[in-house]
Amino acid sequence: MVDLVALKAGNEKRWAKAKLTANYSRIAKALVDAKPRYQAVEAKTGVPWPVIAVIHERESSQNWGRSLAQGDPWNRVSTHVPRGRGPFKSWEEAAIDALVNCGPYLARNKDWSIGGTLTRLEEYNGLGYAAHGVPSAYLWAGSDQYLGGKYVADGVWDARAFDTQPGTANLLKAMMAIDQTITFTGATITPIKPGIPKPDIPKIQPVDPKPTSVWSSLFSAILSIFKRK
User: 36 in helix, strand or coil?
Assistant: First the structure.
């Protein structure tokens, strides 16, 4: 069984010293450009938008017709792990399902420090790399931290295979170079709960039951004179 505490510490160390071996600025820019769309899913799940973005790239090369869960078309029932999901009405609906209803249930995570984030990303793909004692290609492919080895299919390990896709950790580094608002401080993002907004009812000022005016004041003064006679 994989020690998640040790895995988190290891990922933190790799993050601090990792150097990219490829230029991912073009891919990173495309992910940052789609920030509003990823933020819409963040608002519903609490998962930081950059995490959603790098999963999208890793699972389907940012194909909006493919599910965040495993890269299958979201308008059909999925055949790859997680199987049996969908069909969905939109990419966003499929993404929310992947983050809320599928392991490792990223929407439940409360630790978005860099170590916690990287460990959740590794869990999202599966802990097979950690079980083999090697850095995960899902995180580190495209950096000096990746040593080779790859799952060439669901549950099929090949120690001689080499992953050429950009790893999610490396994509995060490339995105942070473009968008300096991306940080991993460990803060929890509270998702927006759907509800019926209260109507904005304007306040009505109370009406004075006895309005006064110059003419009404003058009439009252004349009336009082006649009453004294």
Answer: helix
